[in-house]
């Protein structure tokens, strides 16, 4: 089971929106050095919605090659078309990814039965560990604990990223799935409590900016050391909030660029962080000791 600080990696781009492989390698090396436990390549934070399929799969393969076995690589392969999600998942397996992360279909708002059949079809089509991803604030549908419980019985489905911030779901899902099913939070602000309640880690945006601190906080929480986890998280609370001051990944890409790890590139319809939001992000970075 992949556990701990799993960074939802930003996709570095040049100012004209092209993928920047030089900076991508720099980011991979940064996370290896900082103790990040795993990387998600081209998740939603990695602007999966605006990369075409070939670009998407090239970035996955590039991250796998750069990591070179030093940590697990999880590929973002979700889509609101089941056939497309299967195709992306097949290509991620061919690229050498260790697992796949599949966001719930967005906009078309499937029923719980539709969600079940969507994920079941992908799991039956591609033999690779697959992690469900529930973020209703971005997708318009909520993958309920009961449906996660059903899906946990499907071969190849090994965990869920639960990004609602509803801490009661840790116990609800655990009771329906068992100890071998991985529970990850996708909500940085509640990641400390999520892991103290028995979660297996965080698929994190904050970890792009303060990876060592985030790793150490989650490790303390997962071993039940509340005092240490709270002391470390106190330095991260500003990032947990300011990195969402505008739509993700706008603020986090600005922060990573400010750290000198990549240039100022993002794809429309997203735009660069506006001047009025810069100081809150910068102050949060100071609080976390990364400037």
From TrEMBL:
Pathway(s) this gene product operates in, as recorded in its UniProt entry: Amino-acid biosynthesis; L-lysine biosynthesis via DAP pathway; (S)-tetrahydrodipicolinate from L-aspartate: step 3/4
GO cellular component terms, semicolon-separated: cytosol
Protein name in UniProt: 4-hydroxy-tetrahydrodipicolinate synthase
Organism: Methylomonas methanica (strain DSM 25384 / MC09)
Annotated catalytic residues: 133 (proton donor/acceptor), 161 (schiff-base intermediate with substrate)
Superkingdom, natural source: Bacteria
Summary of subunit composition and partner proteins: Homotetramer; dimer of dimers.
Part of a proton relay during catalysis, annotated site positions: 44, 107
Chemical reaction(s) catalysed: L-aspartate 4-semialdehyde + pyruvate = (2S,4S)-4-hydroxy-2,3,4,5-tetrahydrodipicolinate + H2O + H(+)
Function of the protein: Catalyzes the condensation of (S)-aspartate-beta-semialdehyde [(S)-ASA] and pyruvate to 4-hydroxy-tetrahydrodipicolinate (HTPA).
Keyword Amino-acid biosynthesis: yes
GO terms classed as biological process: diaminopimelate biosynthetic process; lysine biosynthetic process via diaminopimelate
Binding site residues for pyruvate: 45, 203
Keywords: Amino-acid biosynthesis, Cytoplasm, Diaminopimelate biosynthesis, Lyase, Lysine biosynthesis, Schiff base
Single Gene Ontology MF annotation: 4-hydroxy-tetrahydrodipicolinate synthase activity
Lineage, broadest ranks: Bacteria, Pseudomonadati, Pseudomonadota, Gammaproteobacteria, Methylococcales
E.C. no: 4.3.3.7
Residues with site note (L-lysine inhibitor binding): 49, 80, 84, 106
Gene3D superfamilies, alphabetized: Aldolase class I
Localization per Swiss-Prot or TrEMBL: Cytoplasm
Family as reported in the entry's similarity comment: Belongs to the DapA family.
